[in-house]
Amino acid sequence: QQSGCNGFTDAEIYSLAVHYYDEDDIDVGRPLDCRVVVNHTIVLTEEEQREAHEQALRKATEEAYAKITHKSKSQPASNAANAANQQSLF
User: Fold this and answer.
1) Residue 69 phi/psi, 5° resolution?
2) Which among 18, 2, 1 has a CA at the least distance from the CA of 10?
3) pLDDT the model gives residue 24
4) Angle CA(57)–CA(38)–CA(45) in degrees, nearest 5?
5) With a cut of 70, which residues of the chain have pLDDT below it?
6) Using CA atoms, how far apart are residues 53 and 47, in angstroms rounded to an integer?
7) Are 58 and 52 in contact (CB under 8 A)?
8) What pLDDT, on the 0 to 100 scale, is given for residue 62?
């Protein structure tokens, strides 16, 4: 923030990090309210895309199964409560 720059190269960030860990008496100061923007995109190989897709499917399947099993466990309790409140015709 003090430099007034809007962007830094990887080498500049690395040198700042090395300087931080080399010095013993650096005053960090107060936390900054800022955002970090990275100007490159990650390109996945087809294998990595396929693996990410499989993981997403597994996660969705597990969540759906958990939701179904959670509902089925709570339904018998509500059916039992309704059965207790109903009068028998016989």
Assistant:
1) -70, -30
2) 18
3) 82
4) 40
5) 1-5, 72-85, 87-90
6) 10
7) no
8) 94
Backbone φ/ψ region at 15: left (φ over 0), alpha (ψ -120 to 50), beta: alpha
Of 45, 36, 26, the closest CA to residue 1 belongs to 36
Q: How far apart are CA 36 and CA 22, in angstroms?
A: 24
Helix, coil or strand: residue 56: helix
Res 42: pLDDT: 80
Residue type, 25: D
Cβ(1)–Cβ(34) below 8 Å: yes
Query: Whole-angstrom Cα distance, residue 61 to residue 11?
Result: 44
Q: Which residue type sits at 40?
A: H
Full-prediction pTM beyond 0.85? no
Which three-class secondary structure state does DSSP give residue 36? Answer: coil
Torsion of CA 6, 9, 14, 19, to 10 degrees: -50
